[in-house]
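testing teh design pipeline on a random one, pls ignore if ur not involved
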């Protein structure tokens, strides 16, 4: 039976393949669709893949289901419906919040169980701020419409919580930034307590074993700012093991390399060796130390630890198998 897949990286490209040559797997918070032995296509989540296969669950050759639903809650706030689902895949459990508009359009964000626990606390705080605000006045809006904000950063995802207002009223905007892709939902402000309670209900039932978290904690990410470039250092994991991804972001250009955990030490040694040789060469040529050669004297390249993880991590053009 022939099926057609669309590549996330090249939306205009469609590939027809035999069903028995296709497999689903997970790496770096994306879904990989394997076609044959070496060809792999990237998708953000199963919902982008499964409609192409005409099935709700897509079994893999490893005997796992692509996704299993554990629990769901439905919220009706004004003219919108919100679905909160606890799901499980081969990497663990996670929460998906979906906004269904009156026109049938849908927006969704994903989060780990640990993020859902933190999310409910921050939503509760924003709800307290909302309850203390004066009545909404369309003629006197806050600058940029922003009333209060908070951020959650975990692994390769960043979440923005913005309590905002416009002429129509006040609302909470939840945005998720991952792999260079931004997804967001908007919840009427009066529904924040319902959202918090639903999250608390689900996490109370399914957060008992946090190591089952689909996006388990890894070492804190780092970021290096150099001129108009930004370098992100993210530790991730997939079924092949732990790896370090180094991403360079400059304007709208993104690129990255992935180093398996067992080779990180050698990678570090090579960089240290080359850095030392470049410094020695400058001194032997009579050149003064350049910015960054002596960080104690001229600290222009700032190596900073992110609040808790990385923001705007770019997607690689092709998934890299970490052996």
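output:
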């Amino acid at each position: 039976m022939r099926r057609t897949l669309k590549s996330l990286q090249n939306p205009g490209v469609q590939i027809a393949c035999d069903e028995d040559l296709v497999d689903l797997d997970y790496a770096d918070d994306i879904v990989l669709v394997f076609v044959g032995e070496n060809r792999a296509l990237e998708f953000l989540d199963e919902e982008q893949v499964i409609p192409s296969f005409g099935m709700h669950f897509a079994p893999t050759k490893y005997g796992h289901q692509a996704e299993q639903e554990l629990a769901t809650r439905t919220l009706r706030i004004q003219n919108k419906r919100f679905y909160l689902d606890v799901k499980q895949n081969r990497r663990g459990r996670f929460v998906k919040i979906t906004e269904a508009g009156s026109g049938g359009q849908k927006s969704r964000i994903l989060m780990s169980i640990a993020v859902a626990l933190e999310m409910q606390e921050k939503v509760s705080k924003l709800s307290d701020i909302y309850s203390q605000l004066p009545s909404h006045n369309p003629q006197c809006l806050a600058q940029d419409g922003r009333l209060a904000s908070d951020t959650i950063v975990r692994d390769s995802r960043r979440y923005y919580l913005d309590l905002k207002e416009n002429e129509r009223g006040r609302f909470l905007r939840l945005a998720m930034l991952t792999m260079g892709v931004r997804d967001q939902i908007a919840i009427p402000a009066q529904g924040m307590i319902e959202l918090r309670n639903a999250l608390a209900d689900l996490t109370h039932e399914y957060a008992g074993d946090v190591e089952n978290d689909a996006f388990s904690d890894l070492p804190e990410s780092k970021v290096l700012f150099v001129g108009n470039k930004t370098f992100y250092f993210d530790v991730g994991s997939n079924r092949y093991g732990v790896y370090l991804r180094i991403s360079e972001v400059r304007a709208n250009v993104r690129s990255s390399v992935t180093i398996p955990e067992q080779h990180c030490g050698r990678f570090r040694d090579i960089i240290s060796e080359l850095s030392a040789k470049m410094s020695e060469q400058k001194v032997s040529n009579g050149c003064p130390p350049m910015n960054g050669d002596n960080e104690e004297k001229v600290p222009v390249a700032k190596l900073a630890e992110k609040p808790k993880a990385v923001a705007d991590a770019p997607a690689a053009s092709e998934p890299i198998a970490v052996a």
